[in-house]
Write a structure and sequence with these properties.
By secondary structure, the protein is α+β, with helices and mostly antiparallel strands. It is built from 8 helices and 12 strands. Strands 2-1-5-4-3 form a 5-stranded antiparallel beta sheet. The protein has a 5-stranded mixed beta sheet with strand order 7-9-10-12-11, covered by helices on one side. It is rod-shaped, with a radius of gyration of 51 Å.
Length: 468
């Protein structure tokens, strides 16, 4: 079932319920009002009958309420051919009936009889044999302040039945007409309202089939919710296109980086069969080993990056940053004649994290600084305690990064055009993902020709960071 059909049927169902509720209230309200009018008419007829039978205010007497003296012939002068009258004694014996009843007696309910004997009026609907349903008023006949007999006045309910039948027919026809018009209008509104979504679906299916994520949906200019959805999908398409473009570039760069070592290894292996002296063969082996080591580092970095991007779970243990920095600087030896590495400030601060991963963060930052800092330069490391965390800073006096390259330095596979080259563009990306896996964040500041400063904020043991 299509969405427009479900919307139309839901709208019709709600409208049908509302119409049914309205029709029910109207029907029973009309029925009650007509019955009240009939009851008022029966009360007036009862008064007329009593005036016709006993015009003297002091009448009737108990003697008048006997079957031998009671005469209902004066009722023939009343303009009420459908009026049925019956007089019943207190022992339930019919004393007299009007000629309109043709010998038929009107029944009286036990509860109504007791109520009338107590001096109250009672209304009841009865169906006499051979007669249509009638409305009966049982009225007490008072004799000297006491009930002497019961006067029953009734009239047919044919008018009520006809009116209610016509009302039912009218309500049914009007309801069906309203539902038909509303259904057509609802279908028209749903069809035209959802038509842009159908166009968006076809465009999105075409984009997915052709894998042309540079295309955009054409309904993004609409000011309504459809336009908002189209703009959101366009943003998603832009993100997908950018991600795929980066992945293609990264795969191409990685393939290039792997191809060069493999080519060098293959060349050295071929040369080993041609070089006659042992020294030459040893040189080929040494260079092949270097290329294998280079490929091993690249594959390890790729594997680590895939792990952290997939939500690498790190161990959560207290780590003294100052001790970790000192040990890492001691292990990472600067090349002879190269830049010097010094710890300028090491606050005694503890963070909650994985010591091995934190060491990788610092190692990557220092390796990056060593790569881009010329001989005689200086690399300084600082650990500063901050509210709810610690700030690890690695600053160098190297070549720096151009302003247009700075926002992308933590992107995977990115290598600044202003740099000296080398590397695979994975070290800083690993730093960013590992820091975020610890609940931290990274930042970079640099000026071309004046050096760079990389900062990593990490939460301390009092705050549990959110895992990736």
């Amino acid at each position: 079932m299509s969405l427009r059909l479900r919307l139309t049927l839901t709208y019709l169902a709600l409208l049908a319920l509302a119409l049914a509720a309205f029709a029910t209230v109207l029907y029973f309200t009309m029925q009650r009002q007509i019955l009240d009018d009939i009851d008022r008419q029966l009360t007036l007829r009862s008064d007329e009958v009593q005036l016709a039978l006993w015009p003297d205010p002091s009448a009737p007497t108990l003697a008048d309420l006997s079957a031998s003296r009671l005469d209902l012939s004066p009722l023939a002068n009343l303009d009420a051919p459908s009026l049925y009258v019956q007089v019943v004694s207190l022992n339930r014996r019919v004393l007299a009936t009007s000629s309109t009843l043709n010998g038929v007696t009107l029944p009286i309910d036990n509860a109504d009889f007791a109520s009338v004997v107590a001096g109250k009026q009672a209304f009841n609907d009865v169906a006499a044999p051979g007669y249509p349903p009638i409305r009966v008023l049982s009225d007490p006949i008072m004799v000297k302040g006491k009930v002497g007999a019961i006067l029953q006045v009734s009239q047919p309910l044919a008018a009520l039945t006809q009116t209610l039948r016509g009302l039912r027919t009218l309500l049914l026809l009007l309801g069906l007409g309203v539902l038909a018009v509303a259904g057509g209008a609802g279908w028209f509104v749903a069809y035209h309202g959802l038509r842009p979504l159908g166009a968006m679906s076809r465009q999105a299916a075409g984009i997915a089939a052709q894998r042309d994520f540079r295309r955009r949906l054409g309904t993004g200019s609409r000011p309504d919710e459809v336009g908002q959805l189209a703009r959101t999908i366009n943003q998603l398409l832009a993100t997908v296109d950018d991600t795929l473009s980066r992945h293609r570039d990264f795969v191409a760069d990685t393939s290039h980086e792997l191809r060069n070592p493999l080519l060098a290894i293959r060349t050295n292996l071929e040369l080993m069969d041609r070089v006659p002296d042992a020294a030459g063969r040893e040189e080929c082996v040494r260079e092949s080993r270097q290329q294998v080591e280079r490929m091993s580092r690249l594959v390890s970095d790729l594997l680590l990056l895939a792990q952290v991007e997939a939500g690498l779970v790190v161990e959560r243990r207290p780590v003294e940053l100052a001790s970790l920095v000192t040990a890492t600087i001691h292990e990472l030896e600067a090349p002879t004649g190269g830049p010097t590495i010094a710890a300028e400030r090491l606050d005694a601060v503890r963070v909650l994290g994985d010591e091995g991963r934190l060491r990788q963060i610092l190692t990557n930052l220092l390796s990056n600084a060593l790569k881009h800092t010329p001989p005689g330069g200086r690399i300084s490391v600082r650990v500063e305690e901050q509210p709810r965390g610690a700030l690890l800073t690695v600053q160098d006096t190297g070549e720096g990064i151009a302003a247009e390259d700075l926002p992308n330095v933590f992107e995977r596979g990115f290598r600044a055009k202003s740099g000296s080259g080398g590397g695979y563009g994975l070290g800083l990306a690993i730093v960013k993902h590992l820091a975020e896996a610890h609940g931290g964040k990274v930042a970079a500041q640099s000026e071309l020709g004046a050096g760079s400063c990389f900062s990593v904020w990490l939460p301390n043991g009092d705050r549990h960071p959110t895992l990736m």
